[in-house]
Structures are given as structure tokens and as C-alpha cells.
Amino acid sequence: MYRAPDGREVFVLDCHTHFWNGSPENQRNIHGKQFIDCLYAYHAHLSPRKELWEKAKFEKQPVEQVYNDLFVEGPDDMAIIQSTYLRDFYKEGFSSIERSSQLAAVNPGRFIVNGSFDPRDGERALEYIHYMKEVFGVTGVKLYTAEWNGASKGWKLNDPAAYKCFELCEKLGIVNIHVHKGPTILPLSKDAFDVHDVDHAATDFQGLNWIVEHCGLPRLDDFCWIATQETNVYAGLSLALPFIHPRPRYFGEVIAELLFWLGPEKILFGSDYAIWTPKWLVEDFWAYQIPEDVAAERGVRLTDEIKEKILGLNAARLYGIDVEKKKAELAGSPIRIAAE
Fold first, then answer.
1. Which of 6, 10, 96, 209 has a C-alpha 20 to 30 A away from that of 127?
2. Neighbours of 304 (CB within 10 A)
3. Helix orientation angle between 123-131 and 160-172, rounded to the nearest 10 degrees
4. For residue range 305-318, what is the model confidence (pLDDT) as tens digits?
5. Following DSSP, what letter does each residue of 262-315 receive, concatenated?
6. What is the pTM of this model?
7. Is it true that the peptide bond before 75 is cis, omega within 30 degrees of 0?
8. Euclidean distance between CA atoms 246 and 45, whole angstroms
9. SS3 (DSSP) at 86
10. How many whole angstroms separate alpha carbon 16 and alpha carbon 9?
């Protein structure tokens, strides 16, 4: 839990983390190396110098390091591990539900593990959705519309095959749909992460929550116009938040736009671990204020109460978490000594 300088205890639910294996041993081809190298370039370009990791540490983290970075040194109370398979690039998948569930099993109460699927797999995709629900009890998924699948270099949320998957998700109670709609990662196509298909899917599936990770950057304007009219579309701050260090004014413009268009109840914190660790992100965010001229132009303020919503309360509502009950549960299950 994050304790603010004034003593306030802030519940932190980190909505966008990974337990990945981007090591050379898991890379299937040159594209696996390109992908992890590109992520590392984002890490190196946006992180404070004291937060930089060596490349080998970045490529694959052991269980104890993840726990330490998120919950011991880090301020997270809970974290959502997102699945991203990229099986065309990685032998065992990049961040698979099976591997992440093993991490969650030895850290009870701390993790929510989300699955993933590829509608281009047809009937096998539907079978896999059933498998994830029956075996892992998932209530959310992470979708990667630019993922390669053989000759296909991407898909859209409003593809007919995708709609069949969403119909099944809604039926099974898999209601939180996290979608990567942000910058591209080598060798994936930037255009395959375009946000316009969110508009169609959100309109046609009102029973699903559409969490647009990276808030559509660099397509923020398009995303905001969509999210303001679609009541079930939310903004994930992963990737946007690290700009608070090298370009604080730019981050101020991003968060001000989101507050102006979406309001404070539809913005979710995500560290994007292991690209960045939540400790410095949460500390910097709590201390941050939007530049006065940017805030005045849009008529918004970033109050402590709004920061609390963004850091955990909004996501807790989407995932049906009773925050006070969870706080009591975690207080009765202290940080594992082995992780320190």
C-alpha cells in the first residue's frame, strides 16, 4: 500500500503488469529479439537514470523479483498480470496465462491473471476461451490486435470472428477487455494498433468493459472522442505515465485531456511492469500537478481524491473488489519475508 506524505493510505491496483520471458533461450527467431529490444529501448528512454536495469535483468524476472518490485519495494496492493502470447516470436509464449498463474498461486490474494485469445484461430479460439474460464476462472483478457499469426499481420476488434469471441466472453462473464492501443513495438505494424475499431466493439458489446491500454497514444485525440461517447470505454495510463519523468508537461497535457473528456472515474493506473516499476511512478504521480495553464484551459484539477480513484478505486470497481475487505485481508497476510 502506498502511504502518502500526509499519512493517507492509498489502495493501489496496478492494472497492467507482465510476467514475461523474453530471454534469448525463449526467442523463436529474430523477431523475438527485436520485440524485447524495442521494449528495452522504451525503458531506457523514459526511465530515470537510477531506475535503469541491465538488459539480462529486463529480459526475464524470477518470481521473487516480481514480488519484491511490486509489493515489497513497490506500493502495489494488487496487480493484474496481462497475457501476451506472441507465439510466432517466442517458443513458450512471451507472457502466458499458464506461467503467470504459477506466479499468482504462490502469492495468494495479490494477483489477478488475465488471459488472451486470437480470433483468427476460429473454433480453437472459442475452445480456448472456455479453457481459460474453466481452468483459471478469468474475468478479463488482454488483446493484441497487431500480433502476427502466420501470414496475418493483425486483426480488428470488429472482425466477425472477433465478435463471436466477444459474445462468448460476455456469456461466460469475462467482462474486462484490455486492448493494446498504443505505440507499435518492432516488428509489429503501427496501423494494426489503430483505435477506431474500439468504437464499433464498444457500441455492440455494452456488457463488456473496454480498457484501452496506453490510452491510444499516439492517437490520443481519436481515443478521447471515442471514449467520451462510449460509456464502457476506459483509459489505461500504462506508457503514458512514465512521461511524467522526461516530459512532465506532455504528461500534464495527456492527463488533462483524459480528465476533460472521460472524467476521473474512467482512468486506470498501470505501471507496464517490467518496462517500469511502480514505486517511482506512484511516488511521482502523487506529487504531480498539471501545469496551471494546461489545467486552466481545460478546467480540470488533479486532486488527491482523483489520484486515489486512478491508482486503484476505479479498477477495483470494474473487477468487483471490495477495497476495505481486501485491505483487511492483506493486513492479515503480511509481506512474505522470503521476498525481502
1. 209
2. 11
3. 20
4. 999 999 999 999 99
5. H-GGGEE----BTSS-HHHHHHHHHH----HHHHHHHT----HHHHHIIIIIHH
6. 0.96
7. no
8. 8
9. coil
10. 21
